[in-house]
Amino acid sequence: MAEGIWLRFLSGPEIASLGLTRTEIVDAVEEAVRDHGEGQTSFEPRVHLVPDNGGIGHFNVLRGHLNRLGEHGVSGVKVVGDFVPNYQVGLPSELAVATLFDPTTGVPLAILDATMITAARTGAMTTVGARHLARRDSKILGHAGSRGTAWWNVTMLDDLFELDEIRVTSRRPESREKFAEELSAELSTPVRVVATAEEAFDGADVIVEATRLTEPEVLLRTAAVKPGAFVVPYGTVSAVELDLLDVIDKVVVDDWREAQSGRFGSLRRHVDTGRLSPSSLHAELGQIVAGQKPGRETDAERTLLWHRGLSLLDVAIAHLILRRAEESEVGTMLRFH
Question: Where are the transmembrane segments (predicted)?
Answer without folding.
Answer: none
